[in-house]
Amino acid sequence: MTSLSPFIRALSESDDITFVLGADRRIVQFNEAWSRFALANGGGAGLQRWEGGGAPIDEAIPEVLRAFYVDAFARSLASGERWEHEYECSSAETYRRYRMVTYPVDGRFLVVVHSLVAELPHERAECAPTGAYAADGIIVLCSHCRRVRNPAGLRRWDWVPAYVRSPPENVSHGLCEPCYEFYWGTLPEDDDG
Ligand SMILES: [Zn+2]
Question: How far is the CA of 145 from the centre of ligand 1 (A)?
Answer without folding.
Answer: 4
